[in-house]
Amino acid sequence: MQKPKVLIAFYSRNSSTELLAKAVAAGAIEAGAEVRLRRAREVVGPDVMRQAPGWLENATAMNDRYEAPTEADAEWADAIVFGTPTRFGSISTELKAYIDSLGGLWFQGKLNGKVGSVFGSTSSRHGGNESTLLSIYTPMAHLGLIIVPLGYADAVMFKAGTPYGATHVSHLDANKPDEDHLAVARFQGRRVTSVARSLRCAQEPVAA
C-alpha cells in the first residue's frame, strides 16, 4: 500500500508557526507518511513588509526553505493540514489566499473525502488561538474535507495544545514552542496520518 500523502500548508512570519509545522511533519513522517511542507506567500509588497521589523528578512529566508503551496499539492494529498498565526482572532490573509485558490478543485469535487486538520500560534495569551483554529473549520467543511481534531486522544494533550489542533503562545515572539507544544504537533501529524491511512484502506479495492 502506498504511503499516506500529507500536505502541510502554513504561513509563518516569525517562526513559531513554522516550528509547529515542522513538528507536525516529523510526526507524520514517523507514522509513515510522505510529506510536502509548504509556506504560503505574502500578499503585500516589500514596502509594506519593511514596516514590521524582521518581516521581509524572515519571509525571504523561509521562502528559500519552502516552496509555495499549489493547487497540485492539494490534489496530490490524502490529508491537508493548515497552519497559521492569529490575525485579529482569525486566519492570516496569506493562508486564506491559498485556501481561496482551491476553488477549481472544490468545483470539481476533488477535495471531497480528504483529511483536514489545523494548527496555529498567537502572540498573546487569549489572543485568539482557539477561535483561529475554529475559523478554519468553516472553509474546510466547504471544501469537503473530513475534519480531524485532536481531542484528548494522547497524554500530551493534557500538557499543551487544544482539542482543535496544536497551538503556541509566543508572548510577543519572546518564546518559541517548547517540547510540550512540539509533542502535541507531532501527535497531530501521527493522528492525521493514521486517519488518512484508514480512509485510503477503505477506498482501495479488495483483490479477488
TrEMBL record:
Belongs to the WrbA family. Keywords: Flavoprotein, FMN, Oxidoreductase. The gene is wrbA. The keyword Ribonucleoprotein does not apply. Residues 6-192 form the Flavodoxin-like domain. The keyword Nuclease does not apply. This is Flavoprotein WrbA. InterPro entries: Flavodoxin/NO_synth (IPR008254), Flavoprotein-like_sf (IPR029039), Flavoprotein_WrbA-like (IPR010089), FMN_Rdtase-like_dom (IPR005025). GO terms for molecular function: NAD(P)H dehydrogenase (quinone) activity. PROSITE patterns: FLAVODOXIN_LIKE (PS50902). It comes from the Bacteria.
